[in-house]
Amino acid sequence: MIEFYENLSPSIKASVFLTLVLMVLAVILGHIVAKKDPTQPIRGVSFFVVLIVDSLNKFIRQFHGKQWRRFAPILIAIFIFLLVANTAGLIGLETPLANINVAIAFSIIAFSTIQVSALIVRRPWTRIKDLASPSPLLFPVNVISEISTPFAMGLRLFGNILSGSVIATIVFNALGHVAGLFAFTGLVHPIFNIGFGIIQAFVYFMLLTIFLAMAVDAGNDTAEE
């Protein structure tokens, strides 16, 4: 098992490491928040955890109505992983999404999430009719669209993260050779990592939320629980 892990690429290793760390943190932070008294003000780390999760839940609820609780866990999990993975360079790790294999894996996850959710919520026959709308002649086109959309999202994420890393490296190396600017170059890398990382994580999360809502037709039911 150890030999198998050592043979993995740096990006895959970073993905595995970050996944394990996030799993442990999720359990610990979840336990801490669960022990809090809801009648008392929340402070410290718990406050930020509750604030972030509540904000994401409200965003998801706008698109998924009463069904938002079904999809919030996986959507938030994907967003948090992307947020951490896209900024992994700040702690010396390889950025996972700069590896096309990881990007394709995310595309498969997005595709599976959308299609399985649609089949469960809409039922198989209704889902087939959705894909054959407004005309049965468009069924093949709609199927291709359903397949290509999540893969385009993954490749877009890969391209943006990779290009951000390349631009940051070019700027860093260019300024690193200019006397008196070494202190400034120390700010370039974090700015590019945080800026590109947060923006791309939220864009992917937003698009996945919207496409998932379209697939399950949640937009017609906007009542909140």
Plain-language structure description:
There is one protein chain. The protein has one domain (2-220). It is mainly α and 225 residues long. The radius of gyration is 20 Å and the shape is globular. It has helices at 2-6, 10-34, 45-64, 68-86, 100-122, 124-131, 139-176, 182-216. The protein is built from eight helices and no strands. Mean pLDDT is 81; it is low at 218-225.
What would you say about this model in short?
The chain is mainly α. The protein has one domain (2-220). The protein has eight helices and no strands.
Secondary-structure blueprint:
Blueprint: H1 2-6, H2 10-34, H3 45-64, H4 68-86, H5 100-122, H6 124-131, H7 139-176, H8 182-216
Helix pairs in contact: 3-4, 4-8, 5-6, 5-7, 5-8, 7-8
Helix content: over 70%
Based on CA atoms alone, the radius of gyration comes out at 20 Å
DSSP strand (E) fraction? under 5%
| Element-level helix/strand string | HHHHHHHH
Ends apart, CA distance between termini: 46 Å
- Biggest β-sheet, characterized? none
The tally of beta strands, per DSSP, is 0
Q: Count of DSSP helices?
A: 8
Average pLDDT value? 81
* Uncertain residue segments: 218-225
